[in-house]
Amino acid sequence: MRLALIIRSMKRLLSIFFLPVLFGVPASAQSGDGLRTVDIDSVRVTGKSMDRAEGVSAGVRTSVISGEALQVNRSRSLAELLGGNSTVYIKSLGRGAASTASFRGTAPSHTKVTWNGITLNPSMSSTFDFSQVPVFFMDDVTLYHGGADLRHGTGAIGGSVDIANRPDWTDTTHLRAMLEYGSFQTYTGAVNLRFMGQKSLFKTGVYHQQSDNDYRYLNKIFRLEPFEERRKDAQYNQSGLMQEAYFRTGDHSMLSSGLWLMYGRRYIPKVIISNITRHDIDNDYSLKFYTGYDHAEGRHEFSLKAAYLLDVLDYEIKHIGETWQPQDGSFNRMQGVQLKGDYRYRRSEKLSFGASVRYARDFIYAAGDTIRPSLDPDDNYRPVVRAGRNVADLGADIEWKPRKRLQLSAQAVGEANDGDLAPAFSTGVLYDIFPQHLTIKGSASYNHKFPSLNDIYWIPGGNPDLLPEKGFTYDATLTFMSKIGRALYFRSEATVYLMNVDNWIMWLPRDGYHESGAYVWSPVNINDVLSCGTELMAEVNLLLRDLRMKFRANYAYTRSENRNSNFELDGTRHMQLPYVPLHQANGLLSAEWKNIFLNWQVSYTGKRYITRDESYETPGYCIHDIEIGYNRVAKGGFAVTPGIVINNVFDEYYESTRYYPMPLRSISGSLTVSF
Amino acid sequence: MIAAIAILAVSCEKDNGGRLGAVTQNVEGMTGNTLNVAGRQDKTVEIPLDGITGGLTVSVRGEDAHWLAAVANNAKDGIVVTVRGGYVGEADRLGIITVESGKDRIQIQVVQKSIGGMPQMVILNEGQYGYGTAELSVVNYDGTVTWNAFEKANNMPLGDVGQSITYLDGKYFVVLGNSNQIKVVDPLTMKLLGTIDFTAPSSPCFIVPLNDTEAIVSDYNQKLTKINYKNYTVVENIDLSGAPSFFYINKMTRVGDKIFCAAIGSDAVWVYDCNNFTPLSPRAIPVEGMEDTEKMIEDRNGNLWVYGSYGPDGYPKLYCIDTDTEQVVYSYEVPVVQPGDAEKYVAGAAVDKISYNRMDTDGTRGKLYFLMKTLLDAATDRSVDAVYSFDVDTHELKEYCRLPELGMMYGMGISPDGGVYLLDCLDYSAQRGYAKHYKPDGSHTDLRVGIFPSMIHFTEYEN
Description:
The complex is a heterodimer. By secondary structure, chain A is mainly beta.
């Protein structure tokens, strides 16, 4: 009784603070494809990994990160989540440090990232840093493998990652708070507040994590005798606020809005084959805001969305010691505005058409703080880049079910990028060989990616003559699922794919005169890449009385190589691209017995070459993480969940990036409260 | 590093009434009747022959015996044998010297051992920044290459960003810029002997000895570091922010008791006295367009040659500095033909400099070698990189060797005998590069080495 009173009071109090903050619209609706959710008695198994958004090829391979995985990784970054639960390859300098993701042997810049339909890739480099996204803020994470996702324009040559928040009108939780303390003085605190009226819903998330991140490891490469040392320059802190608001404006329409603020200050770890004589510090500030309107009535659906994005990177360098202190660093600011409209006409259950229009304006400001004294006081090296870009695209798609078991789809996009025109398309087919048991699907797509603003405008060396990177993707996926008895459900997928990416961009020294007599670095279209491989997934769900178990495993074989020689002695032809593992696998076992739950996550990454001619490599590794917890639900819906996570259970030394060690065994304890 | 080995053995057969006479055996390297010779240098040996008097007739026969010569030394009743050094064949080779005098006849067997398996040069590969792929490649005379020689000997990587290798005090001092460290390496075994760690803000580059125990290390930060190369310690970090009119010192050369420095941000060569080292008050020798990345070369006359530039396009200009008076005593503007000069703009003309030049000399120190572009076809303006030589005495400039199929020059070394070695990092895209040995006709032998090969050390200079 007293608890209920407290809750009501808090709701009222918090409403005063957060109700006026924002108003907005629902996230884009997702629809299933030929494989629907399956209910097997009391085990409800979602065929989520087959879900795809409308406008995406029916044949595309889609994987949805499970709720269990989101739970296990709730105090970690999106990079860590994807690294352990998908076949996306994550390259990281360490926890809290820059982490990139790549699909199927393509470059990190070929991975498109969206949040509720808004493209997040930074306009300067195109490469998204997945370490800056707390999993705690995410409701859904969906991966589209290959280049078939054209909903947000071009660019997703390798694949795309959809981060989504959704209004769950059935959820009655008001507050969810988490505190966690772990090894290396790692503190995490997160709160999620939720207020719901008859026609409105507000969600507020606050997150903070900080860590000294000074883990111990055995350094075997800097001295003749291996020695133990602590990781230096890896400390970080990260704070974020996410505010969502949803208003049902009628039976068929909704306004939604989202604001996402992040701040991070992190030291950049150094390669451990070096004496550290300076600190590099990255200060990141970002603001993401969108508002939109969705309407669905009868055969018509349309949505409008507008967004503003701001990213600021303030890079500072502090030198150690008393001698001369050079002034180094840089300041980068990126701003973007995005407007988009989507329309869908459902002529019948068998046939629907979609159309979209999108406009984006990006603007960057970059300034180097490096000052080099010289005889000429005006000769200080302080490059400033101011550049912008307009991108507009028109898209159309069709989905057709000529037969009950057969789906066909086609999408096309025409993009105008500062006056340069480029098309992209995808086609897909899905056929239920044995409905609810065996399905085959396939897609063919063509996508391209325009050079980033750095590629074009960077001073010195920007190359306005660069061609877009482009490529075809062909893939086929066979899905098998079966219910075995009353308690067991099994599902598996096997995908083969073939991709080529032409005009691959690399920054190389160019033979142009520079005042220092050195070469000028400049991006060039140098490679044509062929990537082929297979992706396997298996999932088992089991329910036995009080015991629920779920096991999901992924495996990827990726062969990604340079197809051509640029000159006679070129040693890179037919060589595996750097940091593309040939083999990668992971698995997550989740078990729940009464109130006790256990998650065991295993991830294996094979050796990776670090140079283009396979002359140097970094070894593979296999890491185990375990979480165990207890979920106590009291009367009134008040729940307390203590838990312990042990990362790298077997204390294995490993490196995601060569000579950047990752933490050995670590432990953290958490307490989550919700009501 | 490689001591020339000469073991001489003489067998004699003296027809003196059926008696075999003795020959002098106390000749260096002579053992029994077998003579073994090995080494890079030509070897000349005097062999006295006991019991033979009068006029001698000497003949030589053997496998391709042009490498072996012998003449009579009647004044000393013996012969003089000359063996051409640098034999790199797979097997030992044999020659026979026959000496006759009247009825006396002596045969001397000469066996030359191959030096093919001996190191000719050590190549420092810079490696990719932040990847720890700096390495040493050892190239033997027979063209075989040992990759990652340091890592193989020590089971640990060399470091990050190899800046320079210096032979000092009988050891290699390898400067690793991004590791902020100097590794001291045994030339014979490639074993690590010690490290010099920089804990102050540093980006060390090159080393020059200051005295019998200390050396100066240049730095891409505005500082110098004094090290003790006997006990591998940093003696002093020297802040140069108060120094006059230059940013940092790059290349350095010691001539006599002076250190000459090339510094970025100044049109001058800066001079320090080794016996009175005053870091903040060097003396300046004005040099127009001074290139701090070019090696400064002491020629056989004791003068210092530095690489500068002239004109709006920065064409090469060579300056000769008298190291005693610290004055420029001669300068030479390398003539560059412009397309508008139809008479001279013909194939074979020097038409441009290259972006990233290197200058070196050979064992005689009588010539300077640097790179230019030579015109191939006036109609199409097509040109090729070429090494030009400049005689320090006659001041004659000529094209020395063309460099076709050169990707991206990242270093150059001229061997003691004038061989041209270009270090080609190809397209600088993080793959193993090549040491290309160019012949005068432009043909070349390519040796695959490490990533971004940048500097060559010829072992012959260790003698």
